[in-house]
Amino acid sequence: MSKLFKFLAASLIAVFAVGSLSACSTSAPVDMSTVAEVIDVRTPEETAAGYLEGALLFDINGGNFAEQISTLDKSANYFIYCRSGNRAGGAIDQMKAAGFTGVLTNGGSLAEAASATGLAIVQ
């Protein structure tokens, strides 16, 4: 009986782990005609290695993220990405707290974001 319990517990943990990973980013293609801006929230050192063409470079850890997002239309839709999706999630939380009401999509990593948007990676 304890083996069955351990198996069920491990199975549930695996299901929730996979579900939470997929929640970090979108895997489906994004209709870019509905997106006002693509925002890269990585550091300047990270974006120097490449970023999506046309993306706004708003370093979430740079100290002026709140000022940068204050220039944006709060009702528009935004696609946000970083290295893994974690900082993009934090950026989305900050944007919601600042009153953003449009669709805020976590694009995950640069590669995931490029795949979802069809935008080229530039340097």
Q: What strand order characterises the main sheet?
A: 3-1-4-5
- Which percent band covers the strand fraction? 5-15%
Q: Total number of helical segments? A: 5
How many strands?
6
| Average pLDDT figure | 85
Full CATH superfamily name: Rhodanese-like domain
**What Rg do the Cα atoms give?**
17 Å
Largest sheet: 4 strands, parallel
Order of helices and strands: HEHEEHEHEHE
Structural class: alpha/beta
Give helix % range. Answer: 40-55%
CATH architecture: 3-Layer(aba) Sandwich
Protein name: Rhodanese-related sulfurtransferase
Keywords: Signal, Transferase
InterPro entries: Rhodanese-like_dom, Rhodanese-like_dom_sf, Thiosulfate_ST/Rhodanese-like
GO molecular function: transferase activity
Task: Give a verbal description of the structure.
The chain has 123 residues and is an alpha/beta fold. The protein has a single domain, classed as Rhodanese-like domain (Oxidized Rhodanese, domain 1, 3-Layer(aba) Sandwich). The chain is 41% helix and 14% strand. A four-stranded parallel beta sheet has the order 3-1-4-5, covered by helices on one side. InterPro entries: Rhodanese-like_dom (IPR001763), Rhodanese-like_dom_sf (IPR036873), Thiosulfate_ST/Rhodanese-like (IPR052367). It comes from Rhodoluna lacicola. This is Rhodanese-related sulfurtransferase. Keywords: Signal, Transferase.
Descriptive terms for the model:
single chain, two-stranded antiparallel ribbon, alpha/beta, globular, transferase activity, Rhodanese-related sulfurtransferase, 4-stranded parallel β-sheet, Oxidized Rhodanese, domain 1, transferase, 123 residues
